[in-house]
Design a protein that fits this description.
single chain, 147 residues, alpha/beta, Rossmann fold, 5-stranded parallel β-sheet, 35% helix
Length: 147
């Protein structure tokens, strides 16, 4: 079964000044290696999410195009992706709602480049996706709140 991983942009991948959170490239490489379908989304719109990923790619000198399957404006229960879903986001309300719906989740703190000397939240998110896939494949249900 394909795992569709929804990744938010603002606060999750970049801060308010477009500083890129550490491990962005590693997260996306891991998700593709794990055969996940990666959907980048933003409340700012589909085009906004795509432009942000292009900017992140320029800053990291990396092409994310082959790693991203789709861009969305909004993520909700009506999404066409009804298979196995996992959400990585900084919005606690969204994470709580998706967890209640039975989907895998990982809450990252809103990214502020000056807040932490070591920020490995996206590495932890990749590990949470791995645990989610392992639990799903073994018949267990697993979700992680980032703690």
């Amino acid at each position: 079964m394909i795992t569709v991983v929804f990744v938010d942009v603002d606060g999750t991948l970049v801060d308010e000044k477009d500083n890129v959170r550490p491990w962005v490239k590693g997260l996306f490489n891991y998700l593709k290696h794990a055969d996940c379908s990666v959907v980048v989304w933003s409340a700012g719109g589909q085009g906004y999410a795509e432009r942000k990923m292009e900017m992140i790619g320029r800053k990291l000198e990396f092409d994310f195009t082959p790693l991203v399957d789709a861009y969305l404006w909004k993520v909700d229960g009506q999404s066409v992706y009804a298979e196995s879903r996992f959400y990585i986001d900084d919005a606690e309300g969204l994470i709580d709602a998706m967890k209640l719906s039975g989907y895998g989740t990982f809450l990252v703190p809103f990214y502020c480049s000056s807040a932490e000397a070591v920020d490995n939240w996206l590495l932890k998110a990749a590990e949470a996706v791995e645990h989610f896939i392992d639990a799903r494949d073994s018949g267990e249900v697993s979700s992680d709140d980032g703690d």
